[in-house]
Structures are given as structure tokens and as C-alpha cells.
Amino acid sequence: MEQMDGLDVVGCERCDALCNSRSRIVNGVGPEDADLLFVGEAPGANEDEQGEPFVGRSGDVLDEALREAGLDRGDVRITNCVRCRPPDNRDPRKGELANCRAYLETEIDRVDPEVVVTLGKVPAEHLLERDVAVTGEAGDVFDVAIAGQPRRVLVSVHPAATLYDPSQKETFEAALSTAAEFTDAQSGQSRLGEF
Question: What reaction does this enzyme carry out catalytically (predicted)?
């Protein structure tokens, strides 16, 4: 029987292919009241092994860009559209995204972030419910309804894009800087200033 324990999904069996390819459900990490909620597409091999989103090389890129933007990984919440690793690291399928959508909406609702930052094409299109030209729209903020609630969604390229195409590094860092400035404007101070 599937259920959520707080923000964690436990025991979900909705997707046969994902259940067969995962070694664990990879839930979100970070404060449950974070101003920024980062959403990736799905766990990869490192995430499946370690049980945490955005570890390994992509996680290192994300952590570095967060520091450059004046943030710490511990200040933000990081999750994925789909919580189980797809076979061969393929993109999650529409049905898999749909099966996990209620979990993501519950997490967004409970965290109630100032901004949801999509990391890559899959989460951007999933949350904005339209085609997204990620490189062209990176750093743009859109007002959308998610689970009936108004939300701000900021589009960003995926951290891994900077590894395959170094010209994307500036685009990625600029998007994170925009997210940090936006939350700073809301709170009136730097997140690092609280520590």
C-alpha cells in the first residue's frame, strides 16, 4: 500500500518499470519550509545508490552554482518529478510523470516555496504544462497554478548540461542567481546572512 510519510513517499508501486529498476525511492531533501524548491526529472544511478537527489557530478555543479549565488545546499529543497530511477537513465514517460504528480504537488504545497526552480526540460514542461525552450527561457519566471495554487516557476537548464556543453554554465549560473535575488527581495536579506 502506497503512502506518504510527511514529504517522503514510502511503498509506491504505481510504475512497474520504475519499481523494477530502482533500488530505493529517492525522496526530496532540504528544509520543509525552503524559499527555493529545485525540481529535477528523476534519480540517476548515483541518486538511486545514495538515496538523495542531485549527487555525483550534477550535484557538484549544482552545489557550486548555489555557492556562487550566495546560497548553500542546506538552504534549499531539492526533489524530482519522479522518485524512482528509470531504466538505463531514460527520461520518465508521461504515465510515470502522471503517477508521481500528486506526490510532487503535495511536496510543493507543504513546502510552499517562494519559487520552484525547474532543472531541465522535463520538469519545466511537466510543471508549466507546455513545450519549453529551456535555453531560451532559462532565468524566466512564470506564474502558474499547481494543484490549484498560484506558484512562481523559474526555468533553468539542468546542471548536467554544463558538463556536456560548457557554454551552458553561464546560463545555469545566471538562472540560479535570478532565483537567489528573487528570494532575497522577498526576505530582505541574504540567506547566508541568517547563519
Answer: Hydrolyzes single-stranded DNA or mismatched double-stranded DNA and polynucleotides, releasing free uracil
Q: What residue ranges define each of the domains in the chain, with the CATH number in brackets?
A: 4-189 (3.40.470.10)
Q: What does the alpha-carbon distance between residue 152 and residue 180 come to, in Å, rounded to a whole number? A: 13
Dig out the grid coordinates for 67 from the structure.
Answer: 555557492
3 state SS of 5: strand
- Residue-wise pLDDT for 118-163, tens only, equals 999 999 999 999 999 999 999 999 999 999 999 999 999 999 999 9
**CA 63/CA 55 separation, integer angstroms:** 9
Listing DSSP states for 110-153 in one string gives: HH--SEEEEESHHHHHHHHTS---HHHHTT-EEEEEETTEEEEE
Q: Name the residue with cell 545508490.
A: 49
